[in-house]
Amino acid sequence: MAGNEWINGYLEAILDSQAQGIEETQQKPQTSVTALRDGEGEFFNPTKYFVEEVVTGVDETDLHRTWLKVVATRNSRERNSRLENMCWRIWHLTRKKKQLEWEDSQRVANRRLEREQGRRDATEDLFEDLSEGEKGDGLGEIVQPETPRRQLQRNSSSVDIWSDDKKENRLYVVLISLHGLVRGENMELGSDSDTGGQVKYVVELARALARMPGVYRVDLFTRQICSSEVDWSYAEPTEMLTTASAEDCDGDETGESSGAYIIRIPFGPRDKYLPKEILWPYIQEFVDGALAHILNMSKVLGEQIGNGKPVWPYVIHGHYADAGDSAALLSGALNVPMVLTGHSLGRNKLEQLLKQGRQSKEDINSTYKIKRRIEAEELSLDAAELVITSTRQEIDEQWGLYDGFDVKLEKVLRARARRGVNCHGRYMPRMAVIPPGMDFTNVVVQEETLEGDGELASLAGGAEGSSPKAVPTIWSDVMRFFTNPHKPMILALSRPDPKKNITTLLKAFGECRHLRELANLTLIMGNRDDIDELPSGNASVLTTALKLIDKYDLYGSVAYPKHHKQSDVPDIYRLAANTKGVFINPALVEPFGLTLIEALHNGLLVDPHDQEAIANALLKLVSEKNLWNECRINGWKNIHLFSWPEHCRTYLTRVASCRMRHPQWQTDADEMAAQEDEFSLNDSLKDVQDMSLRLSVDGDKPSWNASLEPSSNDPVKQIMSRMKQPEIKSKPEVQGKKQGDNVGSRFPVLRRRERLIVIAFDCYNEEGAVDVKSMVTMIQNIVKAVRSDPKMAKNSGFALSTSMPLDELTSFFKSAKIQVSEFDTLICSSGSEVYYPGAEEGKLLPDPDYASHIDYRWGNEGLKNTVWKLMNTTAVGGEARNKGSPSLLEEDKPSSNEHCVAYLIKDRSKGFFQVMRIDDLRQKLRLRGLRCHPMYCRNSTRLQIVPLLASRSQALRYLFVRWRLNVANMYVVVGEHGDTDYEELISGTHKTVIVKGLVTLGSDALLRSTDLRDDIVPSESPFIGFLKGDAPVNEITDILKQLSKAAT
Question: What is the rounded CA–CA span in Å between residue 463 and residue 481?
């Protein structure tokens, strides 16, 4: 039981004594009742003593309620029976805690071994190409337990500090903070556990960045909430925080889009406020909505400050795990740098909860969705260029818990990069300690005067005949609690959250008589109207606090006002300063520490678990005035380090040192858009083709894809031939030719589509071969359904998304008598390649920019050896496979390409249940510094590994960015099962049609050891529809129409 270690010790003593009293009472049931209650036994009963003397101090609310019922029971026999039952309950809790502690120690030990093995494997690969001297240096970095801190900043001297001469940069910065109630004024901090210091931080960061030289616009993305439960302001799509000053934007050049804005993106149920644990299934909806805004804004900013060229985000900065997940996907879709601030970390919270022993890992995950949160944080580490922390401890002891970050391996990789040595595709994000900023505009330097005493005197009544002096309203709300308001005030300001440790502070104050005599205590615990209306965790903390105040009779010495505004916070601190009081932050975990900066004091460091140490430190500060003055002076000396300008200057300097990247097209889509007249004829001809296709589909011939090639005397063909450009003849020529020359006139057709039907069902037999009959039949029906509706057929295109490589896909087309020209784009090899039909019939062109777009952190060199070793030496669960065991994998060279490493799973009948699941494989690759996207496909007969942010779902977002075909106008058709990237294809603003019974064999069972699908895919969504596998064409048409009406 957390916070009651002494009780745990007493329980252990009972267990060690083998509960002699309980055993003897079991042997003599006729005397147990009187022995337990009236003391008429010949032995000392530790159970009786524990129940009657100790249990009232336990924080467990359910036990406390039981204890109250026991005390109120008049029947002695019933009362004694209840006491004995309580003993057994507490005994069971203790045994359960011991079991959880043992499991936790085993887990930590196994994790330590896995990390050491991963580091060892990475080291072996890294040092193969070094000289003997370099090997010694590198190994020394691995072996050293700790490197001097000054070495961590070795590169900082070569980094240019951000200064006023950066004004010409005109940057566009994107911040993301999804959960909680976010607005610029009158922030409702403390209204719930999601609306706290992070909300205040991101809003003030956006404002401060917009005022920095060189920053033109800052967008802070959050969720739009149209609910009667919250204020109407949270439904506003845009809220201006500040405009850029004229001097920062060179006077007349200040654009109407400059400044800082809150952009609210609708995702999830529109009419509900959702806590952060419920938001996970809707993350991809947010990504698609944010992507649409960024693309529109990049074009607008391009017209204002980019000379007509799009202005892409300089950086996308995610705050917390949910925003980090979103930022990673946006970063991959836009190919721009990502920065992450964790604020509070899932693995650290899981460790703390497990140590408390109250809940099992399964219970914790059910309550906090902790596994989904950790998975998001791992993905964020994979994609982030820079991770910003507020303390060094956060790096070593919190981020160090993650698979994706190893302090020692990061030092080695940084040293190799500095020397220009190949890292074999291994990467670690850079960590930077940047203390959070603070707005000091409301802070006034107070000299040693009697002004404060005068204000307090007027508030307390003042001298007779003196006129009352105006004082802040919040002072009156606080001082009305005190019998003697002139005593120094101990101030704690936080949400009523268990981890804020308010109850320990109350106990420390209540049990120290000298402290109670010298000082008052003020608890600012958020805002509340009725405790019963608060979330259970917050209500429990407040209820316990009120009980402790009553227990220690602290009336007249403790203030706990129900309401305060954000603008009252400076006045609250000023009241504490005027009384020569002390600010305390007793939180058990405080990765951010905003209140520590707001307090503007230096002071004493104590263990938040040590109640006596807290009382002694507070007593020391309020009783020793010289120490109090020294701490105050030191706080003023260091205050400039935490100002927003200083924070933003350091922030922009760090971001500038990242590897800058943004979309760069060999063929400008906007230039193509300017050629509307030329392409209008091309589209008219396409309509002729569509009409011909409809005739072919609706005709009596079984071949729905009969040739549409006009006769040589056809004038249409003559016009088209003049518009065509030279095309490639075969796949080898695709790879050998200069890609910039391969852009044909067909490319803009995709850009000008109004909707795209994406066929993404994975129909394979037990051997992983294409189920031609099922797939062709469904494709035929989908095409007929689209073409049967004139409005839908007018500007609809088709795409095929598959794990098959191009050669195998074209073979499938030939066997099914399908022409590749019927599709506007082909997404092959699990999203590692994108092709478009060329102007010459039957020929395909690779996207000339896609390969460079997905190349980020692709470690092809180091992946093959590592994956081969892992899959053939490690069994399910992490145990080593027998040395004589046959290899599970065989390299699938025909399915591999520059950005796809493919393997065939041998002897599937024996090997299927021996291969690692995707989450286990990804964990082991992360431990070795490799960032990628592994997946099983084709009915678990293949393993394919593609770049980190490449996938079939991300390829759709690439088409949005590249050709401005909105994802919301895409219709993705999938089966009930699929490859392990199947979940990603369902969520988002695109419309999804799930065909039941079409795909009976899939690979998705090999995705995770724990089913997190409910946290990935929404259980109900207006964007998802269902069909039966044998549905007629008219039903397919109806479901497409129904989904087209879904709100976006």
Answer: 21
What residue has token string 């002390």?
A: 582
Q: What stretches of 126-169 adopt beta strand conformation (E)?
A: none
The beta strand positions in 876-1009, using DSSP E, are 889-891, 901-905, 932-937, 942-947, 970-975, 991-996
Strand partners, 943: 903, 936
Q: Which residues are CB-neighbours of 9 under 8 A, at least 6 positions away?
A: none
Taking the mean position of all CA atoms in its chain, how far away is CA 241? 25
- Write the DSSP string, 329-390: HHHHHHT--EEEE-SS-HHHHHHHHHHHTSS-HHHHHHHH-HHHHHHHHHHHHHH-SEEEES
* Each residue's pLDDT tens digit, 276-297: 999 999 999 999 999 999 999 9
Burial class (CB in 10 A: 0-12, 13-18, 19+), 311: buried
**φ, ψ at 424 (rounded to 5°):** 55, 40
Residue 293 DSSP class: H
Whether 614 has a pLDDT exceeding 70, the answer reads: yes
- pLDDT beyond 70 at 156: no
Tens of pLDDT, residue by residue over 753-797, are 899 999 999 899 888 899 899 999 999 999 999 999 988 888 899
Rounded to the nearest 10 degrees, what angle do helices 676-698 and 772-787 cross at?
120
What's the rounded Cα separation, in Å, for the pair 405 and 399? Answer: 7
Contacts by residues 79-88 (CB-CB < 8 Å, ≥ 24 positions apart):
79/37, 80/32, 80/33, 80/34, 80/36, 80/37, 81/33, 83/36, 83/37, 83/48, 83/51, 83/52, 84/25, 84/32, 84/36, 84/47, 86/51, 86/55, 87/22, 87/47, 87/50, 87/51
Handedness of CA 538, 541, 546, 549 (dihedral sign): negative
Separation CA 477–CA 475 (nearest Å):
5
* Residues 553, 395: Cα–Cα separation, whole Å: 43
- Location of structure tokens 């900065």: 317
The closest of 106, 125, 123, 653 to 406, measured between CA atoms, is 123
Backbone angles phi, psi at 698, to 5 degrees: -85, -10
Query: What is the torsional sign of CA 55, 57, 60, 62?
Result: positive
**How many whole angstroms separate alpha carbon 661 and alpha carbon 856?**
10
Residue 418 is which amino acid?
R
User: What is d(CA 117, CA 135) in angstroms, rounded to the nearest whole number?
Assistant: 18
Lowest-confidence pick of 343-347, 376-380, 704-708: 704-708
Share of the chain above pLDDT 90, in %: 41
8 A C-beta contact, residue 382 and residue 328: yes
Put the strands of the sheet holding 991-996 in their side by side order.
Answer: 844-846, 833-837, 825-828, 796-801, 755-759, 970-975, 991-996, 1024-1028
Both tokens assigned to 764? 């394979």
Query: Tell me, what's the pLDDT at 709?
Result: 38
- Lowest-confidence segment of 131-145, 439-453, 489-503, 617-631 by average pLDDT: 131-145
- Positive or negative, the CA dihedral 994, 1000, 1004, 1005 is positive
Identify which of 775, 1008, 949 has the alpha carbon closest to the alpha carbon of residue 427. Answer: 949
Ramachandran class of 19: left when φ > 0, alpha when ψ lies in -120 to 50, beta otherwise: left
Cα 133 to Cα 424: distance, rounded to the nearest angstrom: 20
Q: Specify the pairing of strand 238-242 against strand 259-265.
A: antiparallel
Over residues 685-705, mean pLDDT: 40
Written as one string, the DSSP assignment of 997-1037 is: TT----SGGGS-SS--GGGTS-SS-TTEEEEETT--HHHHH
Mean residue pLDDT across the chain: 79
CA distance 180 to 326: 16
**Which pair of tokens denotes residue 692?**
């011909």
Tell me if 243 sits within 8 A of 288, measured CB to CB.
no
**By the 8 A CB rule, do 522 and 506 touch?**
no
Q: Contact at 8 Å (CB) between 881 and 915?
A: no
Whether 155 has a pLDDT exceeding 70, the answer reads no
